[in-house]
Amino acid sequence: MLALERIPDQTGYLVLTEDGAVLTSGGDLENDERMANVITGLVTLTNKVDSKAFPSHDAFEKISITYKDHCYVICLSNKKIYVVKRKLPVPTAAITEQQPTVEV
Q1: Which tens digit of pLDDT belongs to each residue from 1-26?
Q2: Which class is domain 8-87?
Q3: CB–CB of 15/22 below 8 Å?
Q4: For residue 21, is it left (φ>0), alpha (ψ between -120 and 50) or beta?
């Protein structure tokens, strides 16, 4: 069993081959071929980044795509692409009540 299912606040995951085929998936990303194609395209794009600015020996370790309420974390390991969708904590605004003032 994959440890991806035990990541706190994860709502879905994908494990892809280098060419984008879905090996395993679950949650919100279960069998999500469209997302697999988008992620594979993004990973492929990172290989085409200017090699003078980012030398080839400095391959990325992690890509994070953050939205207001969730994020995607993408990692490469053992020639596989791991994607986890996590929900983010909703920021809470402090609610203050104005107290009546009494003038003396």
Answers
A1: 467 778 888 899 999 998 889 999 99
A2: alpha beta
A3: yes
A4: beta
